[in-house]
């Protein structure tokens, strides 16, 4: 029996999942976008792309067996719940699986300590608070087989450090003892597929690699792969950064991914940034 994924806010992460499901066979993937231009580019990849409008999305939900929400909340809350909240409530009992792509930012700052899914959701930024509310709103739908996936920094082909290193705009921002966790898009897809095969409604999963690392080390390794000199170092206090970029440095934590390995049986393709960056560079040519 054919299964149908409705991908709400079909973006970078969801595209890896869609490619895997379509290659596997036995799947339809319906993806939403707000852009008519992007709709055509998605259709070229085999996605049944529809515009973000109530009628088409509600109709797609009526056909879906699985739902994935990727779009971030805005000032008014979760956009999908505004658009089709009543329909989701009506469909909840018949859906096989639902996933919400959240962020490890919901944990806030841990001063470099390890956090797992049992950690309190102490995110203080406006974005983190919005994510915490959105996770709760999805979980509040009675009977919905919802799973939360808290993603670390996402990268992959077309979303890596190489362009900035090549064009000379990359800077190694130095904030002592600061680390970030990361995840390659292919491994996000792998985790989502494993959850679909083994649903555990209500579960939350940290989706990150095994190697939290300082951001300057990642840029230095990217330069090494390109056989270029490392980008210049700039002290965090002196760096020119957007308020959003600077806000990321307020959170310092090491994110534990034991649950995806032990509960879902996932073996990451890219367990650290070195293996991941080598794959990105090969894919980008």
Descriptive labels:
single chain, 285 residues, Rossmann fold, two-stranded parallel ribbon, 11 helices, NAD
Overview of the molecule:
It comes from Sagittula salina. This is SDR family oxidoreductase. Keywords: NAD. With 285 residues, the chain is an alpha/beta fold. The protein has a domain at 3-156 and 183-208: NAD(P)-binding Rossmann-like Domain (Rossmann fold), CATH 3.40.50.720. The chain has helices at residues 12-24, 36-43, 54-63, 79-91, 126-139, 162-167, 185-197, 215-225, 243-248, 258-262, 273-284; strands spanning 3-8, 27-33, 48-51, 66-69, 97-103, 114-115, 146-151, 153-155, 172-174, 182-184, 204-207, 233-235, 254-255. The protein has a seven-stranded parallel beta sheet, sandwiched between helices. The chain has a two-stranded parallel ribbon with strand order 6-13. Strands 8-10 form a two-stranded parallel ribbon. Helix 3 runs parallel beside helix 4 (79-91) and helix 8 crosses helix 11 (273-284). The mean pLDDT is 96.
């Amino acid at each position: 029996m054919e299964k149908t994924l409705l991908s709400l806010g079909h973006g970078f992460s969801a595209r890896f999942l869609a490619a895997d499901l379509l290659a596997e066979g036995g799947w339809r993937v319906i993806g939403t976008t707000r852009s008519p231009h992007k709709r055509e580019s998605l259709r070229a990849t085999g996605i049944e792309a529809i515009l973000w409008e109530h009628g088409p999305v509600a109709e797609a939900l009526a056909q879906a067996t699985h739902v994935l929400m990727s779009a971030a909340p805005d000032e008014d809350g979760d956009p999908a719940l505004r658009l089709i909240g009543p329909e989701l409530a009506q469909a909840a009992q018949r859906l096989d699986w639902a996933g919400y792509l959240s962020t490890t930012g919901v944990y806030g700052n841990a001063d470099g300590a390890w956090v797992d899914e049992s950690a309190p959701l102490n995110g203080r930024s406006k974005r983190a608070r919005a994510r915490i509310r959105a996770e709760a709103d999805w979980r509040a739908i009675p009977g919905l087989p919802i799973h939360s996936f808290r993603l670390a920094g996402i990268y992959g082909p077309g979303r890596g450090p190489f362009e900035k290193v090549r064009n000379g705009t990359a800077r190694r921002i130095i904030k002592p003892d600061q680390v970030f966790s990361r995840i390659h898009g292919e491994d996000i897809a792998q985790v989502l597929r494993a959850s679909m095969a083994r649903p555990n409604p209500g579960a939350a999963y940290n989706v990150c690699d095994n190697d939290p690392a300082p951001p300057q080390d990642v840029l230095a390794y990217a330069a090494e792969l390109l056989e270029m000199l490392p980008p210049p170092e700039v002290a965090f206090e002196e760096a020119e950064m957007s308020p959003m970029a600077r806000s990321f440095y307020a959170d310092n934590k090491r994110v534990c991914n034991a649950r995806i390995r032990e509960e879902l049986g996932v073996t990451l393709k890219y367990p650290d940034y070195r293996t991941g960056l080598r794959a990105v560079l090969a894919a980008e040519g």
